[in-house]
Amino acid sequence: MESEAQADEADRFDRLYRATYRRVLAFVLRQVPEPAAQDVVSEAYTVAWRKRRQLPEEEHEAALWLMGVARRVLANQTRSQRRWARLLLRAAEHPPPPVVVADDSGIGPALTTLSAADQEVLRLAYWDDLPHRDIGVVLGVSAAAVATRLSRARERLRVALDTLRNEEKTHADV
Predict the structure, then answer these.
(1) In CATH, what number does 107-173 get?
(2) CATH class for the domain made up of 2-93
(3) What's the gap between Cα 29 and its chain centre?
(4) I want to staple 145 with a disulfide (CB 3.0 to 4.6 A). Which of 84, 113, 141, 163 is the partner?
(5) Left if phi > 0, otherwise alpha if psi is -120 to 50, otherwise beta: which for 106?
(6) What are the tens digits of pLDDT across the range 40-96?
(7) pLDDT of 140-153, one tens digit each?
């Protein structure tokens, strides 16, 4: 019984898609170029599938509903692009991270021995000079989790530095 209901929903959605796709695409194409429009329309129909039980029954009303969804998708993308542009401007205001290759401290080589996660949290903290809260936003974790990860990464970096220095010392003695 449930699979029959699901099949009916899928058939209804397929009919709705076929009936409204061109209209929704035309609406979006008036606002953005074709490649971006395809992405927006795909996302709009993804939302429609997730909310298929809320879709209006009548084709015209459903097309309007989908156009509203597409409009919100466009607005979200525009906001994201503005945030990205602001981030690029902020990044351009900061000097590039120091090149560590010629560094006598050995941090560069030691850093490369760490996991990608350790390298990322250390770079966010020290190269990007972000506080724990902001690192947490970037990584999708709490500030407390950042503090723990950063502490562990610093310890692993210290061990890697000691190991490299001991190796250099051994090679120098030979």
Answers:
(1) 1.10.10.10
(2) mainly alpha
(3) 25
(4) 141
(5) left
(6) 999 999 999 999 888 898 989 999 999 999 999 999 998 998 998 888 888 777 665
(7) 999 999 999 999 99
